Amino acid sequence: MSLSENTPVDLKALVNDVLEAYPEKSRKRRAKHLNVLEAEAKDCGVKSNIKSIPGVMTIRGCAYAGSKGVVWGPIKDMIHISHGPVGCGYYSWSGRRNYYIGDTGIDSWGTMHFTSDFQEKDIVFGGDKKLHKVIEEVNELFPLVNGISIQSECPIGLIGDDIEAVSRLKSAEIGKPVIPVRCEGFRGVSQSLGHHIANDVIRDWVFDKTEPKPGFVSTPYDVTIIGDYNIGGDAWSSRILLEEIGLRVIAQWSGDGTLAELENTPKAKVNLIHCYRSMNYIARHMEEKYNIPWMEYNFFGPSQIAESLRKIAALFDDTIKENAEKVIARYQPMVDAVIAKYRTRLEGKKVMIYVGGLRPRHVADAYHDLGMEIIGTGYEFAHNDDYQRTAHYVKEGTLIYDDVTAFELEKFVEALRPDLVASGIKEKYVFQKMGLPFRQMHSWDYSGPYHGYDGFAIFARDMDLAINNPVWGVMKAPF
Amino acid sequence: MSDKEVSQSAVSQSADKVLDHFTLFRQPEYKAMFERKKAEFEYGHSDEEVARVAEWTKTEEYKAKNFAREAVVINPTKACQPIGAMFAAQGFEGTLPLVHGSQGCVAYYRTHLTRHFKEPNSAVSSSMTEDAAVFGGLNNMIDGLANAYSLYKPKMIAVLTTCMAEVIGDDLQGFIANAKTKDSVPADFPVPYAHTPAFVGSHIVGYDNMIKGVLSYFWGASEKYDTPKNETINLIPGFDGFAVGNNRELKKIAGQFGINLQILSDVSDNFDTPMDGEYRMYDGGTKIEDVKAAVHSKATISMQEYNTPQTLQFIKEKGQEVAKFNYPMGVTATDELIVKLAELSGKAVPDSLRLERGRLVDAIADSHTHLHGKRFAVYGDPDFCLGMTRFLLELGAEPVHILSTSGSKKWEKQVQKVLDGSPFGASGKAYGGKDLWHLRSLIFTDKVDYLIGNSYGKYLERDTKVPLIRLTYPIFDRHHHHRYPTWGYQGALNVLVRILDRIFDDIDANTNTVGQTDYSFDLVR
């Protein structure tokens, strides 16, 4: 029995009902972030990238999370120092499953937590002296480290430390890039500014201060993967397709990436960007400065994968175009078999999505490929250009919620009773308690990869195992 | 590359047997891809150089350098104050923590606790940004309290701080009073608070601050007075990943005694709600009426000394007898708790507990051969380390490296005293203020048989091949152990079995090569 076989819900009335619970001032502010998608809409009709309201239980994180957790953290051959008190680095330690190949602790440090562990005296007297020492110790204990980044936590910007000066000095001393990132958590309104700051720092402290590796030989087929954090191996199941059509991926940003790959990126013929929200800044910069075109692609679900492969191939010669067709054809039997197996089990199932800055639209067609329907979607930290892009993916009548509060999401889900909620760890158990199948769509619920053709099979299996698990059937006691 | 032919062979992935990350990336096409990426694009170090450095990190020379560190902390066993305060607050009935400061912190705390308990975790932030950094967060407090109160209908909002609010010096008492005059919440609505700077102490200090904050709110702040006392005994569990199982076990023990036990901050129901179609944002917890009444209790027991120094001092000033333990586990530590309960309550130890004790000792006797002389490294919070060390000594095992990033000199001495009390403690040493990268050096240079700690230790297990037993927070990669107690005689039995299971699994894994080692692959052990 599908839980979604309810009478249609008047969504506008639902939104108004939910808003009723707020004090007036907050109600007015929240009203701008909630909407029902209208026909022919150019965007989703919601305001975005605005400060969260205090006390409402926003699901958002901070700029540090956007820089250390997302952009910089996965660069595997560098050590990323969480500069400030111990907590930020502790909570973000190994949390995101940015897979990498390397000898952890020796030539890679992705699943380790380095912190300057600020004490009261560091707040009072400043932490620059300590930072000097931290960098020296790191370089001595980990001699194969190729660079160090300083990920600022809130106090750094408040106490007036000059981490740039320390970085310049220590970089000269140790002969390796030392890169200061001003990603204090109070900056901006969400993770998003952290992405932007991290991008700008790569521009200023990598591109402007280092060179592509000597001896790097370009080919006409050099591309990069920008904005893939290799969660559960996503960048790998994407890279393999690009290689199979005859392209050469010279850099991965930043999942399983290295500093050398960042440095060599200006040699690319085209930058291919998956997570537009977190890395469009650097792509735009490279377009301006190095004349490198960039293109957004979508490797979720076979429809989008084929379309993206063709669009990418269209930028190259006929061989690549022919290869793209051959690769699409080669995977088609497996894709057909996956759809044949799972579509019957998932057809018509309704999904509500709430994730970060890309997936609330990017995964939509993967669900559609399985015959599923998106009835609500929203972003933690999208901007207006994301909502413009979203209108293309979802249909009229879809509920849109920006920076949704725990209260709103709970009420919306309760009223709409979707067959699946696709969101994050903080939401997971709330909806499972309500008896609703759930998949974490940040971490792939510890599964993955979900990108590429290989990933689609896993995606389909996982949606099926969530929705069709027998546990939902025993929820109600017979007494 | 463009001259490369597109493969015509069938793909590895299949609908029949879906390959996910566990096996997909072991397929030849992926392995070849990893090799190409490494060789052509990563500009890493040679395999020989990596192997050389890897060996060097296992040496005494490296250990000396590692222990000479003064500034960088690597893989610590501590979090920051607010998560401890949040945990403490969530153990009170209908209580919503409001974390005053940057909002990302709250996302982190909720995530961390949720990943361990596999439960929802509710807390709000006052979402301070750059303007609040300049002007202070008063308006954030006013709006935050009003919104949280309207939306989430708590019975109490417990306010704590992130380091941002602490650095700029926001005054919680004044802000909350101000918010009440602005009608954010009713004047009589309880809003206790604790300043919890992340740059002082760790999560266990945050726990202490919040419990003291809540008690001060309901009991009155500083004046010393003797209130009329009743027969109730208060108990403060401390920050405990096994709180769900442990608090229930404590209540069971109190029931056996017939003691009216008042747990102050009891998360056991809030962090273990049923799945029956209804989401309970709040469940269980110490009732506010009971918190108020607890000032009249005759005594308060702290299960974790290092989680409660200020709180116990405060309670003592209210005229109560106080007793403190260090995460009591095992036979004699549990005996001490039971004796203390008997002494404080004036009740005889019930026969049922005698029986439980006897069964525990019986189980230890049955299994002692597999524990005797086994060498262990233990890490975690100071109290956990003390409790675990005592239990290991009692089992005839040898605690060798005992490490806590939150551990002080005083704690080191305390551990040493425990070690000195047993011949099995002769090779043991406590390392306060050290981290898991120090422990890596210790294990490589002075090997142990088993490692006891939390999920973060799995990287040590991978590097050193010393099997890990997960017995303290956080446990992210094993499910539901926190639902079983580690305290009481029953809890000690659980801990014993967890250790034994790992030992037996390890023995089997090391004896299962057919025709070579499997003569010892015994059916009966």
TrEMBL record, chain A:
Disulfide bond found in the keyword field: no
Molecular-function GO terms, alphabetical: ATP binding; iron-sulfur cluster binding; metal ion binding; nitrogenase activity
Catalytic activity: N2 + 8 reduced [2Fe-2S]-[ferredoxin] + 16 ATP + 16 H2O = H2 + 8 oxidized [2Fe-2S]-[ferredoxin] + 2 NH4(+) + 16 ADP + 16 phosphate + 6 H(+)
Record flagged with keyword Iron-sulfur: yes
Pfam family for this entry, one: Oxidored_nitro
Cofactor field: [7Fe-Mo-9S-C-homocitryl] cluster; [8Fe-7S] cluster
Gene, per the UniProt record: nifD
Coiled-coil ranges from the UniProt annotation: none
EC number: 1.18.6.1
Domain called Nitrogenase/oxidoreductase component: residue spans: 62-465
Listed PROSITE patterns: NITROGENASE_1_1, NITROGENASE_1_2
Similarity-based family: Belongs to the NifD/NifK/NifE/NifN family.
Protein name: Nitrogenase protein alpha chain
SUPFAM superfamilies (UniProt xref): Helical backbone' metal receptor (SSF53807)
Gene Ontology, cellular component aspect: molybdenum-iron nitrogenase complex
Key words of the record: ATP-binding, Iron, Iron-sulfur, Metal-binding, Molybdenum, Nitrogen fixation, Nucleotide-binding, Oxidoreductase
Organism: Azospirillum doebereinerae
Record-linked InterPro entries: Nase/OxRdtase_comp1, Nase_comp1_asu, Nase_comp1_CS, Nase_Mo-Fe_asu
Function: This molybdenum-iron protein is part of the nitrogenase complex that catalyzes the key enzymatic reactions in nitrogen fixation.
Automatic annotation (TrEMBL), chain B:
One Pfam family linked to the record: DUF3364
Nitrogenase/oxidoreductase component domain: residues covered: 80-502
GO cellular component: molybdenum-iron nitrogenase complex
Catalytic activity entry: N2 + 8 reduced [2Fe-2S]-[ferredoxin] + 16 ATP + 16 H2O = H2 + 8 oxidized [2Fe-2S]-[ferredoxin] + 2 NH4(+) + 16 ADP + 16 phosphate + 6 H(+)
Keyword Acetylation: no
The record's free-text note on cofactor binding: Binds 1 [8Fe-7S] cluster per heterodimer.
Cited PROSITE patterns: NITROGENASE_1_1 (PS00699), NITROGENASE_1_2 (PS00090)
EC number(s) on file: 1.18.6.1
Alphabetic keyword roster: ATP-binding, Iron, Iron-sulfur, Metal-binding, Nitrogen fixation, Nucleotide-binding, Oxidoreductase
Protein family: Belongs to the NifD/NifK/NifE/NifN family.
Function: This molybdenum-iron protein is part of the nitrogenase complex that catalyzes the key enzymatic reactions in nitrogen fixation.
Subunit relationships: Tetramer of two alpha and two beta chains. Forms complex with the iron protein (nitrogenase component 2).
NCBIfam families for the chain: nifK
PANTHER family with a match to the protein in the record: LIGHT-INDEPENDENT PROTOCHLOROPHYLLIDE REDUCTASE SUBUNIT B
Name of the protein: Nitrogenase molybdenum-iron protein beta chain
Lineage: Bacteria, Pseudomonadati, Pseudomonadota, Alphaproteobacteria, Rhodospirillales
Gene: nifK
